[in-house]
Structures are given as structure tokens and as C-alpha cells.
Specification:
The protein has 453 residues and is an alpha+beta fold. The protein has helices at 2-16, 47-62, 84-106, 122-130, 137-144, 157-164, 169-184, 209-212, 272-275, 412-415; strands at residues 26-31, 70-78, 112-120, 201-207, 218-220, 231-233, 265-271, 281-288, 294-307, 312-326, 338-355, 358-377, 383-402, 420-444. The protein has two domains: 22-211, OmpA-like domain (60s Ribosomal Protein L30, Chain: A, 2-Layer Sandwich), CATH 3.30.1330.60; 265-444. The protein starts with a helix and ends in a 9-residue tail after the last strand. 28% of the residues are buried. The model is unreliable at 4-26, 186-199, 213-254 and 447-453 (pLDDT under 50).
């Protein structure tokens, strides 16, 4: 009888045991990224301390578990500023950087790694503003939730509308209070609590015991005077293969081109080539519009020298203006930087007498198409070099004369005030008629639509 009771108790215990021992536990890691960066910088934003704590918790909870039951979901995104393509590239690269770091630190213990690219985080910005009491809250929310068919290669129209909202006042607050946390990976106030992304990069670890639990079939025999037919407890058998988890190849992080500072600027210049012929000169360039696409340049030079008892002269005055079109994707160039095309018009007066007894006076006009390249450099991008070559036509109506050296020796200076006219003519030069190698100093000024850095 005792044996029968023991067998019955054993059978009841087995029947009461769940077919799977189900449990679920999670842990998480948040990684902050610097502006436009895709590399995990452990010295930035407390990343090193959070990673160390995450590793300790992970090894304590999952270090002795089979990696087949462990899954890491990595969520990454970027601030909604800029084009969608660029923000998608940022999100993907950040997720891949975190995956590479975890695989390096934990090896196969990390289990299955899945990447989730959230791209531009418009929803997070919406939640942050919705939780605020800003006076323009409803206006901004209506813009963000507006249905737009944005070209993924360019700025989202919603960003442009936010930049112009209330004359740029709202954009200044958004940059400082809301977009800055999203840029660097901070969660900011008001992020929805049900979202897995609390920073620019977020790792959520979960254990799925059904993947690594093996339940072995067993047979229970109830002892009786008569031997009963064995009653099997049926269950699914999960077979674990060796080297179950394949190595995950993490693609190299792509280069992300950074947007340039879009603060307006104007410049003062001097052409070194004119200094080579002793012609002091000054150029001023000013921006036109708000799209970093057009500018206007004014130039002047004056050379007013006489020598050898007034028998020789190099005198010229020039005034010119050039309208420039700046090429390329201007969001990646600061103002007054890059390749440019121009249409210029110039004119002036000259009086040249290089050799005794022979000189020319006249007025001239110069029109030309200019192609050039200007590059800003220095810590604050306040210096630049401007190279240009112009092709067009220059025409002049000249007066040819003889100077004072034809007069009696010793009386040249007395008579040089009276030039002897020889002939009058017209000269037209088609071809290269402008060149410059200019040193530039750039002066920035604050524009209402952009924050000066």
C-alpha cells in the first residue's frame, strides 16, 4: 500500500508540473551619441558607467544561460532635423555600432541581436512638445502631424515651417530645449513611456525560456498488485544544436556628412595678383536671400603713380560688380563657400606711360563670365581663399600721345603737362579678362532664422 501511495503522489506531482518553466526577465542599456556621430564614445554622457552596470547585470542574470534563449533588440534613431535619408543612415549606423560593441564585449553570450532603425524621431518631438505648456504648442503640433509627402533627399517641409513659425522665435526654443536632447541622445521631458527608445541608442534584453528548455519524456509507473500500462507525459522536445548562433557580421559604419553652419556671412577680400602690379585693391561680398545660393561682390582698385620727373605714369581706377551663383548642396556648405559661377561688369579709366615719349589714356568696359572656388578655413571658418578666372570681352577707346621726353633736355618736367596727341583708336579683347587669387576674411552676423555658433 505504501508503494501505491508513493507512486500516486509522484504521478500527481508530475501532472501538476507545467510543461514549460516560463519566465521572462528584461534589462536595458541606453547609449548617448554626440551630435551627428555614429561611434560609441564611452567617455560621453555617462556611457561607460551605464555599459559597465549593464554588463554586470547581464552576466549575473544570463551568464550561465544558453544563448539561444537570449535576444537583444537594439533601437536607434536621430533628431528629425535634416533629410530623411541622412537620418535613416544615422539610425542604422548607430544601431550597428552598438551591436558591434556588444558582440565585442559579450561574444556569443549576447545571443540573437536584432536592429531596429527608427530614423527621424518626429514622434518623440511631438510627445515632448505635447507634454509642455509652451504658448505655441498647438501650432507646432499641427505642423508636426501634418501629412506631407517629403522628398527623402531634402529637408522635411515640416522643419522649414517650424523654422519660420513666429518669425523664428519658436525654432530658437526648439533647438535649445527639445532638439538638443534628441540630437545627443537624451530622452527629454515628455517622451512616451511605452517607447523602447529612451536615448539615441537603446538595448532591450529579453530571455525566452521556451527556446532553451529541454523537457525529456518520462514514463510514470503506478505500483499495484497488477502492473498497469505505462502512462506517458507528452511534451515537445527541443533539440539544441551545437554552434546554434551564427556569427553576426556588422557592416562598417558609413560616413555621415555633417551639415554646415548656416549662419549668414559677408566678406572683405584683396586680390594678390593686383598687388603684384602695384594696384592696391579691395573687394566686398554680401549674401543675397536666405537660401545660401546667391551673393553680390563689389571690387575696386586704384593705381596712381608717376615717376621719372612725371615722364612715366601708371594710373588706373576700376569699379566692378559681380552676381554669383553658389553651386552644390548648400546645406553642407557654409555661406560663401564652394564652387561658384558669376556674371561681372566692370569699367574705369587709365593713363599708362611706361616708356618715355609713348603713352595711352582712355576709358574701358569689361564684361565676363567668371568661374571660381572659395574655401573657408580656420577654427571659426573666418578665413578663406578665393580663386577665379573670367572669360568675356574688354573694350577701350584710347588716345595715344607723346610725353614730355620729346622736349629739350632739362626742361621735360616743365613741358610734361602738355601731352602731344598722336592718334585715337579702339581696341577690343575677347578672351580671358579677369583672374584673382584673393585672401578673404569672413564676417558672420546673426540671422533671425539661424543660431550663431
Amino acid at each position: 500500500m505504501t508503494g501505491l501511495v508513493r507512486a500516486a503522489a509522484t504521478c500527481m506531482l508530475l501532472l501538476a508540473t507545467p510543461l514549460f518553466i516560463r519566465a521572462q526577465s528584461t534589462d536595458s542599456l541606453f547609449i548617448r551619441f554626440q551630435l551627428d556621430s555614429t561611434d560609441v564614445n564611452l567617455s560621453y554622457g555617462g556611457n561607460a558607467a551605464r555599459l559597465q552596470q549593464f554588463e554586470e547585470n547581464f552576466l549575473r542574470q544570463y551568464g550561465d544561460r544558453n544563448p539561444i534563449g537570449i535576444q537583444m533588440d537594439i533601437y536607434a534613431g536621430a533628431s528629425p532635423e535634416g533629410s530623411r535619408n541622412r537620418n535613416m543612415a544615422l539610425g542604422q549606423a548607430r544601431a550597428e555600432s552598438i551591436a558591434a560593441l556588444l558582440r565585442e564585449r559579450l561574444g556569443e553570450k549576447a545571443g540573437t541581436i536584432e536592429l531596429h532603425n527608427l530614423g527621424p524621431r518626429w514622434d518623440d518631438l511631438y510627445d515632448m512638445i505635447a507634454a509642455s505648456n509652451e504658448p505655441w504648442r498647438d501650432e507646432a503640433l499641427n505642423i508636426i502631424k501634418s501629412d506631407v509627402a517629403a522628398d527623402p533627399r531634402y529637408l522635411d517641409p515640416r522643419e522649414m515651417r517650424l523654422r519660420n513659425l513666429r518669425g523664428g522665435e519658436v525654432w530658437s526654443v526648439l533647438l535649445k530645449k527639445y532638439l538638443a536632447p534628441l540630437r545627443s541622445g537624451g530622452s527629454g521631458a515628455g517622451l512616451a513611456s511605452d517607447k523602447p527608445l529612451g536615448a539615441a541608442g537603446s538595448v532591450v534584453v529579453s530571455w525566452h525560456p521556451e527556446r532553451d528548455t529541454i523537457v525529456i519524456r518520462d514514463t510514470v509507473v503506478v505500483e499495484k498488485t497488477v502492473v498497469m500500462t505505462p502512462v506517458p507525459v507528452r511534451d515537445t522536445v527541443v533539440i539544441i544544436h551545437e554552434n546554434y548562433y551564427p556569427a553576426v557580421a556588422v557592416a562598417p559604419v558609413p560616413h555621415i556628412r555633417e551639415k554646415a553652419d548656416q549662419t549668414k556671412a559677408w566678406a572683405i577680400k584683396t586680390n594678390l595678383l593686383l598687388w603684384g602690379v602695384v594696384a592696391p585693391n579691395l573687394e566686398v561680398e554680401i549674401p543675397l536671400g536666405n537660401k545660401n545660393r546667391w551673393s553680390l561682390e563689389f571690387e575696386t582698385f586704384a593705381s596712381w603713380f608717376v615717376w621719372n620727373k612725371n615722364a612715366q605714369a601708371s594710373q588706373a581706377i576700376n569699379l566692378g560688380v559681380e552676381a554669383r551663383l553658389w553651386l552644390g548642396k548648400r546645406e553642407y556648405h557654409p555661406w560663401l563657400d564652394g564652387w561658384h559661377l558669376g556674371l561681372a561688369l566692370a569699367g574705369g579709366y587709365y593713363d599708362w606711360e611706361w616708356f618715355p615719349s609713348d603713352g595711352y589714356q582712355g576709358e574701358y568696359a569689361n564684361i565676363y563670365f567668371n568661374i571660381g572656388w572659395q574655401h573657408r578655413f580656420g577654427k571659426k571658418k573666418n578665413w578663406a581663399i578665393d580663386l577665379g578666372l573670367g572669360v568675356g570681352a574688354m573694350g577701350t577707346q584710347y588716345r595715344h600721345y607723346y610725353g614730355g621726353s620729346v622736349y629739350p633736355e632739362g626742361r621735360e618736367e616743365e613741358w610734361d603737362q602738355h601731352l602731344i596727341w598722336h592718334d585715337t583708336g579702339y581696341f577690343l579683347w575677347p578672351g580671358p579678362c579677369h583672374a584673382n587669387i584673393s585672401i578673404v576674411y569672413v564676417i558672420n552676423y546673426k540671422d533671425k532664422n539661424h543660431r550663431r555658433k
